[in-house]
Amino acid sequence: MSTLANRYKIIKNLGAGGFSQVYLAKDLQRDDHRRCVIKKLQPKSDDPFTVRTSRRLFKTEVKVLQKLGNHDRIPQLYVSFEEDRQFYLVEQYITGQGLSRELTWWHWTEAKTVAFLQDILETLAFVHRKQIIHRDIKPENLIRCDRDQRIVLIDFGSVKNRQPADHTAIVGTQGYMPPEQLLGNPRFNSDVYAVGMIALRGLTGIDPAKTAFPKDPDTGEFIWQHKTDVSPELAHVLSTMVCQDYRHRYPSAQEALQAVSQLSEAPTPSRRRLLQAAGFSIMGLLGTGMAYPALSQELPNRKLSSPSPTVASTPENALPQEPSPSAESLSKTTKAAPLKEKELPATPTLATAPQRLNKQELLRRYGSYNECRKVAKANGIKFSTTPTWDKLVYAFSYSEALQHMSQVYLKTYPNPSLAGIIVELAL
């Protein structure tokens, strides 16, 4: 199978879903040869029940994507067709990285978690308003788009139109499915539960699909707060989202989104985009030498001078720690005091990076040198020459340090009147 319908040329295999095989292809009948995703109905078993179920879900996905229409956070359905008694659908190809890859990179901060919740819940609220339950929300079905770093919800092959008291086949992923879904009775807030579990994974580093959270013997609820440090307000929202009894959860994504938006630390939309931009663009080119961060801010009608590049022993020391109530005091605090000549290190060394990261830690996370290279490339780390292990350790360490600096910086200056933050990396 190299070309389908005399139009779609298969580029590579992207993997298999529950009932389908997924390919990356290009449309030969378009002048731009647009890339697209082709899903082929391919049940894992040929028993009659599985075949009937897979066909039903496949047709349902086509109808649901047509019902959802054009939404910038949901892949657009281009066409569906049958060829040689095989069923196919063609969808928009989203350029980006699956959230599962991001979750292996570092633990999320509270600000990043809130930004994630706002992002995905906005899309999910739209889906729920269409009376659709996704049923398989998990990191692998969430893509952070390269273009704007927003979350795109994919794979509607397990969706279900909401019908009260209607029991159905059990579809979903262990660890992200709540009890009622395991019993064949999914609800809108079953999706809310899955989103909450992803947030807990981001905060704690625990993958619920592999390791179950411990439960309180009296209440049956998850015990997770000792694994992270978040505000009581966010902890309450997350605990409500992942409550074992669906009657005590937010009824749908809309109510969960309202609760998240009311958090005292919740970023405004402009600050959320600013947080994402700082967190990801800061991981730009890291050459074989050391990257010196220079952070500067711009206020309306007034540009503040950038601090002089410095090398700090820890990310926290590289930034002012007291918030600024006004532009005047902000201008004073952002001017970095020059270091004395004797305080400057002779040459940049690996000691400036977080001490907990080393070759053994990278091997534990990613398994091999080649996999480390792949993860580095996926996260925007580039090398001008083939990196040694020391270079890899240094690049990963410094990327984590820079990410932490951006979080501290935004937390230190949460003033929504700021026009933006410029992140510069001088090699």
Q: What does this 3D model show about the protein?
A:
This protein is of the alpha+beta class and 427 residues long. The chain folds into three domains: 3-92, Phosphorylase Kinase, domain 1 (2-Layer Sandwich); 97-261, Transferase(Phosphotransferase) domain 1 (Transferase(Phosphotransferase), domain 1, Orthogonal Bundle); 277-338 and 345-426, no CATH class. The chain has twelve helices and 14 strands. It has helices spanning 48-68, 99-103, 110-129, 179-182, 188-204, 232-241, 253-261, 269-281, 327-333, 359-366, 369-378, 389-412, and strands spanning 3-4, 8-16, 20-27, 35-41, 77-83, 86-92, 96-98, 132-133, 142-145, 151-153, 160-161, 292-299, 302-303, 420-426. Helix 3 runs antiparallel to helix 7 (253-261). It starts with a strand and ends with a strand.
Described by the principal axes of the CA atoms, the overall outline is globular
Within the largest sheet, what's the order of strands?
1-2-3-4-6-5
CATH topology of the largest domain: Transferase(Phosphotransferase), domain 1
Could you spell the SSE succession in H and E letters? Answer: EEEEHEEEHHEEEEHHHHHEEHHHHE
Query: Can you give the mean pLDDT?
Result: 76
Helical proportion?
A: 25-40%
- Quick one: biggest sheet? 6 strands, antiparallel
**CATH superfamily placement of the largest domain:** Transferase(Phosphotransferase) domain 1
Number of strands: 14
Question: End-to-end span in angstroms?
Answer: 46 Å
How much of the sequence is in beta strands?
A: 15-25%
Unreliable segments of 5+ consecutive residues: 264-354
Gyration radius over CA: 24 Å
Per CATH, the class of the largest domain reads Mainly Alpha
Q: How large is the count of helical segments? A: 12
Q: Tally the structural domains.
A: 3
> Which CATH architecture of the largest domain?
Orthogonal Bundle
